[in-house]
Every structure is written in C-alpha cells, then in structure tokens.
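RECORD TYPE: protein structure
NAME: JmjC domain-containing protein
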Amino acid sequence: MKSIAIPYLIIVLYHFYNSEYVQAKDTKGLPGHLKPLGHSGRHIEITEINGFPSLKTFFKQHVSQSKPLVMRGAAKIYPAFSKWSDDYFLSLPETSTAEIDIQQRKKQNYSLPYLRATLAEFLHRYNHTDEYMVSYIPSHLKTDLYLPPCVQCDDLIHIEPVMWLSNGGTKSILHADQNHNINCLIRGTKDFILINKDTPDQTFIDAPGTYSYVDVDRVDMDKYPVFSSIDFYDTHIEAGDCIFVPASWFHQVRSYGYNIAVNIWLKGEDKFFDVSSCQDVTKAYKTLDQFTYSLVEPPSHDGRDELDEGAEMFRQAATFF
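PREDICTED:
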C-alpha cells in the first residue's frame, strides 16, 4: 500500500505544480508586479531633436516610418507659451461663454459621463475638484497657437485639435489612437510611455477597441505577464516640448503640476501622404484659426466620444478605474 501511495502522491504534486493555478501565482514573482506601468520591461529612448523638423523630414523619417519623436522646445514659439494662465483666460470675455468638455476623474473612468460647462465656470472650480478639461480648443484661444510647421500643408486633412487643462495628477488609460498625434505641452510636465504598434505580444489589449483594462498604477503580472519583458519607449517632457505619437502606437500619459497641453491630429492614413506638393515652412507661421478642420471625431479617451460601438461598450464596462 505504501509503495503505491508514494508514487501516486508524486504524480499529484507534479500536476499541481504544473497547473494553471500555480503557474499563474508564479507570475506574481515577475518584476513590476503591482507596480506602475513601465516599472519593468526594457526601456528604449525616443529620438529627440531641438524644435520642429521640416515637413519633408518629418514625413519621411517619422510619419511614413511610424517612428515617435520628441521635439524639445518646439512649442516655445507659440504665443500661448508666454501668455497662457488662468488669469489670462479669465481676462478674455469669450471665456465666459465658450463651452468645453470636462472629465470628472483624473484617473480616466469612462463609466462617468463628460460634463459641459463654460471655460470660466471650469476655471473657477477645477482646483477644488477632481475635474480636468479635455475639449476642442475654444475658438478665441486658437489665435495663440500655431499649426506646427512640420504639418503646415494645404493638402493635409487636419482633425479638430484638442486642449487639456488640469492642476496635475491626471492619468490616462493604456490605449492607441487611430490618428497621428502631436502633443505640445504649454505648462507643467508629462511622462509618456509608448509601446510599438507592431509589438508581437498584444494580449494586453483586452477591452473593446484598442484599449487595455490594465490598472496603470498597479499592474497585475498574473493577468499581464507580457509587461515584465515588453519594450517600452518612454520620455519625460517639459513645458515647451512636443511629442509625436504615431497612429496605432499604444501609450499611457501622466501629468504633473499646473498642466496645459494641445493635441494636433493627423489622419492615420497620412502615413502614405505624398509631400512633394508641400513647401517647407520656415517663417510666417499660421495660427490654428486660419485652418479648416475635418469633422472626424478624435478618440474618446482624448476628449470626445468615439462613434463606433466598441468605444461605447468600453465606456459602459470600464468601471474598474
């Protein structure tokens, strides 16, 4: 009896330790378990330059190649860089009537609807709430911003730009946008974490659309072991810097301090855009109010509701944030 029981026990133990239960628990020993996103994995530096590149260089080396880029000090040429503050906004009469969209929680939660208020109403209360602004740029502020010279071409289709304003502490979900994004920071600092759209293991995209349910503050390596070894492209940007995030690249963003940023969008298919008809702009920059914008909606996690059913499903399901 004893000789039969011992081998049987060995077999049971073997299957137990090789079971999904034990293997799942073992993943909790992976680096970065219950740590913020990006705590583990391999970190790759993003290419950096000073200022904006020329239009043709930008499209040849970054848009067509789907390669991110940090542009140090590029936004310092904007009038907004020297002008923008709450006091400045409130000094403009249009601020009392310009309506904006407001996110209710700094850690994005799409189970909560966006709020509507005037910019003035928001400015009077946001420092005492968890709210932050993610909205189309009010028309009266577009004169303070240039369209980046690297995308100033009449043949390009531009999507309505978006403005972010908070007192810091905002955290986006991990997501990918269908459009190219140039994010220029006017005030504060931001940390960007990017994941290549062609990364082989995309099991972390587990929500409708190109979103992830991962808690960006406490990554569960039991559920997302891929993050222990994935390649992260990350950078820290300061006021005056811009970053180009190519379409379909996954990214997560954190903001610190009094924070204002603007997003300039380009359609994802512009990867194949022929720039031969465009002229490089070196002077006479044009402000945003001088351009016509596409009616295509920016993605919901950047301030507007997506029109597809998948995004609406995500809004209803994402109660975990």
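COMMENT: Residues 37-317 form a domain with the Jelly Rolls fold (CATH 2.60.120.650).
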